[in-house]
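Hi R.,

As promised on Friday, here is the backbone we talked about, encoded as structure tokens. Could you run it through your design pipeline when you get a chance and send me back a sequence?
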């Protein structure tokens, strides 16, 4: 039923039929096929076939390993002689006891101290003296003074040429079909006439009479409908047909084999049932996780989320090393359901990050205090991106998570505005940006620092009216003695100078406004209808709709989404 040799080979490997696998590998003569056959044959204990496959694949390492397992030192020595790889020769000459070859390799590699120690440990004094003569005098003196013990003699190995006890392999349905290609072909029952039953329906298709000798065709009788005509078919049936009977005889093995249904893996269950992006990431289904985020927050750029994605996947999956040449075993880490609902499916063991993210916010606060604004932007953006994928258990935690996103939004915008201010040369714009900074929703200590900076800059540029407004706002927060003294001095000096701005500023604290995160200018109430980011809810002018939000850098300004989902309780 299979004609492609590579597919036939793989089916034979999966079903454990080494005979068909060997025949197919011989017909293809592909190195990758021989390597697969060598590994599979060794797993089943067919060492002879494994050695043949490794030799066909020119896999000296695999062949040498099998020689060690079977104790065939003569063949191993031949492989060492054949190989041109010094690492291979050095490693396997340890098992064959070829001291001379190891000495030559070490000398060629200019590892003279090691070569001297090897010669002394094998009682080769003459060779050791020759090696000492090639060294520097100081190195030779140290090597000669070092005491070297005798080398241990490796025990002799007895070669085993027969195969190991082969593992029993149950013949599968695919293996039987490989041996019997016509197993799936339909064979009609004995005595059945070819096309007989199908041809009966064509006899009276156009009303021809059944008797070919009758010259006149009699019109077909029209059926007469009677009451209950459909029900009459069920009455007085007298047909002699043997019904199905139960037999005590076993079913023949040639009747076929129904493959059992494959169980659902953790990863497949998580992607099929969960609406949380973190669960899809834990299952390794990054594409479906991105699709979920597109529907929830109108995600437009997933590149900044690569590090959180990999962190969640690594936390929910583990790899256990195996023995020998067997590959490592990877498996998913799942939670244990409660004792009251042990029939529930397990969810991925994704770490709860809310407390950790709250702690990382303090690092951002410290960076702002120390005026490391670029570092602060990186910290707050990292916290914001992890909040998107953080899993919470109730609405109280969800409210805390949304609060963290709001804090990050304000601090990212404030810090970016301060970084941008350092590149501005216009004096009026510098004062405006410093004043706008004070309208971000920051912690009180940071607001006091920003107000102190803004009132000082405004006073230096002779914007006395603005400086007086900012200084009075400073006093509202009851700052330290030094700051309050400076604020009172600025108020007094500004009023003495007439309380007017020497530069016309686009700033008014009397008319409420929101700041555009793209242009960094105020949008006064009633003048424009701002659009919001679909994730962090940063605002901007309507003409920037569709652009990537500069605050979170992952969602669109003016985008539409169903809303962030961080817990299963949101779906109830």
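Update: got your reply. Pasting your designed sequence below so it's all in one thread:
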């Amino acid at each position: 039923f299979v004609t492609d040799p590579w597919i036939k080979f793989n089916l034979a490997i999966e079903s454990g039929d080494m005979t068909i696998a060997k025949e197919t590998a011989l017909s293809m003569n592909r190195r990758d096929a021989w390597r697969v056959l060598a590994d599979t044959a060794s797993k089943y204990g067919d060492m002879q076939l494994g050695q043949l496959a490794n030799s066909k694949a020119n896999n000296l390492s695999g062949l040498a390993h099998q020689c060690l397992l079977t104790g065939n030192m003569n063949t191993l020595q031949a492989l060492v002689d054949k190989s041109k790889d010094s690492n291979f020769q050095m490693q396997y000459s340890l098992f064959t006891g070829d001291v001379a070859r190891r000495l030559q390799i070490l000398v060629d590699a200019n590892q003279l101290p090691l070569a001297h120690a090897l010669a002394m440990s094998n009682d080769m004094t003459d060779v050791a003296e020759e090696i000492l003569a090639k060294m520097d005098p100081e190195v030779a003196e140290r090597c000669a003074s070092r005491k070297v013990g005798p080398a241990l003699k490796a025990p002799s190995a007895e070669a085993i040429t027969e195969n190991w006890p082969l593992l029993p392999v149950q013949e599968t349905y695919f293996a039987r079909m490989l041996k019997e290609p016509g197993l799936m072909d339909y064979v009609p029952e004995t005595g059945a006439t070819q096309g007989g039953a199908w041809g009966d329906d064509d006899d009276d298709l156009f009303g021809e009479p059944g008797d070919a000798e009758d010259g006149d065709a009699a019109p077909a009788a029209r059926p007469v409908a009677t009451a209950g005509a459909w029900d009459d078919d069920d009455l007085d049936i007298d047909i002699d047909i043997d019904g199905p009977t139960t037999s005590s005889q076993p079913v023949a093995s040639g009747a076929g084999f129904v493959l059992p249904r494959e169980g659902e893996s953790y990863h497949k269950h998580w992607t099929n049932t969960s609406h949380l992006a973190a669960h899809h990431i834990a299952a390794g289904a990054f594409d479906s996780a991105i699709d979920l985020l597109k529907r929830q927050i109108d995600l437009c750029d997933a590149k900044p989320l690569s590090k959180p994605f990999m962190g969640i996947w690594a936390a929910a999956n583990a790899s256990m090393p195996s023995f020998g040449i067997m590959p490592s075993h990877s498996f998913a880490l799942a939670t244990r359901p409660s004792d009251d609902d042990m029939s529930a499916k397990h969810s991925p063991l994704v770490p709860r990050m809310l407390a950790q993210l709250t702690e990382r916010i303090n690092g951002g606060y410290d960076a702002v205090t120390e005026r490391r604004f670029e570092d602060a932007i990186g910290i707050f953006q990292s916290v914001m991106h992890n909040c998107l994928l953080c899993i919470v258990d109730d609405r109280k935690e969800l409210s805390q998570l949304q609060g963290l996103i709001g804090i990050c939004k304000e601090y990212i915008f404030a810090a970016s505005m301060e970084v941008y201010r350092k590149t501005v040369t216009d004096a009026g714009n510098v004062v405006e940006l410093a004043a706008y900074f004070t309208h971000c929703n920051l912690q009180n200590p940071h607001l006091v620092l920003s107000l102190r900076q803004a009132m000082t800059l405004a006073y230096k540029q002779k914007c006395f009216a603005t400086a007086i407004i900012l200084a009075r706002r400073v006093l509202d927060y009851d700052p330290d003695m030094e700051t309050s003294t400076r604020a009172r001095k600025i108020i007094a000096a500004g009023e003495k100078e007439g309380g007017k701005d020497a530069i016309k500023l686009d700033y008014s604290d009397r008319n409420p406004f929101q700041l555009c995160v793209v242009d960094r200018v105020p949008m006064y109430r009633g003048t424009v209808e701002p659009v919001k980011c679909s994730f962090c809810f940063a605002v901007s002018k309507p003409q920037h709709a569709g652009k990537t939000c500069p605050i979170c850098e992952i969602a669109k300004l003016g985008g539409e989404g169903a809303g962030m989902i961080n817990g299963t309780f949101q779906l109830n």
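One thing I noticed while checking it: The mean pLDDT is 79.

Thanks again,
M.
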